[in-house]
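Q: Convert this sequence to structure tokens.
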Amino acid sequence: MTKILYVDMDGVLVDFDSAKERLDINILQEYAGRLDEVPGIFSLMEPMPDAIASFITLTQHFDTYILSTSPWENDSALGDKLRWVKQYLGQFGYKRLILTHHKHLNIGDYLIDDRTTNGVEQFIGEHIHFRSDKFPDWRSVLDYLVGGAANA
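A:
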């Protein structure tokens, strides 16, 4: 049976900080401390290094989904995240986007996430803590998941 894998967007697939460079200084000041509420910010983000190729590789080994939150106070976030998936993942992300503030309600074997909030700490399955000492980048994640350590 194929194992289920969830991959977070912000900070894992998507480089949130890449959007900051594209924002006007006045917007940065107005939304200081809550940049995820800037209308359209999610449409400005670039992929994390090696994220796209890694995600595609993972789809060949797992039943892979994108599991992300959408800021409640940002009405454009839902559509922007969907458009991002279509643009960068195409057919590999087709109908694979799940937006929730309660990630633990999704049942799976693995969750790649850079944070421990929004239900990650209660997820039943293994949390692969992206950008941690053990999993600092996509290469380390692929080595673990595809290279055999997780399949042993």
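The chain has a mean pLDDT of 95.
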